[in-house]
Amino acid sequence: xxxxxxxxxxxxxxxxxxxxxxxxxxxxxxxxxxxxxxxxxxxxxxxxxxxxxxxxxxxxxxxxxxxxxxxxxxxxxxxxxxxxxxxxxxxxxxxxxxxxxxxxxxxxxxxxxxxxxxxxxxxxxxxxxxxxx
Length: 133
Fold this sequence. Notes:
This protein is mainly beta. The chain has one domain (2-103): Cathepsin D, subunit A, domain 1, CATH 2.40.70.10. It contains two helices and seven strands, in the order E-E-H-E-E-E-E-E-H. The protein has helices spanning 31-36, 123-129; strands at 2-3, 27-30, 47-55, 58-69, 81-88, 107-111, 114-120. The strands form two sheets. Strands 1, 2, 3, 4 and 5 form a five-stranded mixed beta sheet that branches. Strand 3 (47-55) and strand 4 (58-69) form a beta hairpin. The longest helix has 7 residues, at 123-129. It is globular, with a radius of gyration of 16 Å. It starts with a strand and ends with a helix. The model has no long low-confidence stretch (mean pLDDT 82).
């Protein structure tokens, strides 16, 4: 993940684990992530409005921010893409969740009776991975 260069980001990339959640439409960004990426409140122009996020523990307010995300599997599995995030204090929510843009880059599937999540760049890649029933 990194801040968008055209909006004042400095190119610093941080590697983080983000869980894909099909119910999530906005990516979780922790305040610690912003510090690690060198975010500056005045210089970075990717900050947005305060948004309300529904969580399992109720609604939480957070400031929105535009970031770039890239899926990695050792090397880049995708190009950089813009993702709307919400800034959350670490501890209030402990897990980073994906936004909706990841679903524009990959196919996801599950199979009955199987706890694995299958991911592929092309639809036929998913079909090839699914177990025969």
